[in-house]
Design goal:
The protein is mostly helical and about 180 residues long. It is built from five helices and three strands; from the N terminus they run H-E-E-H-E-H-H-H.
């Protein structure tokens, strides 16, 4: 079962390696797969769950205030905002979502039902796929705005001069392709 999967104890993590080298290690994560029970909390001085990017930003400010500013910092910030359910805030939705009268709502349950082709799942067409992409694009813009706040904080605090930021993604999406 997927719930039983975990990183093997003998596999070193980046956080463990940097912690041994004297770094302070802070991990803020979202969702169950990046969780201590799966081995991802190893090597972190602080490993805390959050809900959305805005909440992660609040936690980040709290943690940075507690740090020893003489020691280097490794920060792992895991954001899950651009995954289903695709429910951007109204302002971000309005920027991207074209008029749509179909049944697609962007919820994970509906997407999983469609992908599993369970009984009663309606056939979706190009307008439905376009609507999913619009919702997804709203989510991306919403996350970009939250990240801009984080980068502004780094600049204003003077941390940007000594900070290496690495952005990665776990996967893209496919919308009825």
């Amino acid at each position: 079962q997927m719930e039983d999967l975990a990183l093997a104890p003998g596999i070193p993590t980046l956080a463990e390696t940097l912690q041994r080298a004297g770094y302070q290690t802070v991990g803020l994560y979202r969702r169950s797969w990046v969780h201590e029970r799966h081995g991802f909390g190893r090597g972190f001085d602080v490993f805390r769950a959050h809900m959305e990017a805005e909440e992660a930003g609040q936690h980040l400010h709290e943690e940075l205030e507690r740090l020893d500013h003489e020691r280097p910092l490794f920060l792992f910030l895991h954001l899950y905002d651009v995954h289903s359910d695709y429910e951007p805030e109204p302002g971000f939705r309005a920027q991207f979502a074209r008029p749509y009268t179909g049944i697609v709502d962007g919820t994970s349950r509906q997407l999983h039902d469609y992908l599993e082709r369970t009984e009663g799942t309606p056939a979706w067409g190009p307008a439905d796929a376009r609507h999913l992409v619009d919702l997804y694009d709203g989510e991306i813009r919403q996350l970009d705005t939250a990240l801009a706040g984080f980068f502004t904080f780094l600049e204003n605090s003077g941390l940007a001069k000594e900070t290496l930021v690495v952005l990665t993604s776990d996967h893209g999406e496919e919308f009825l392709e």
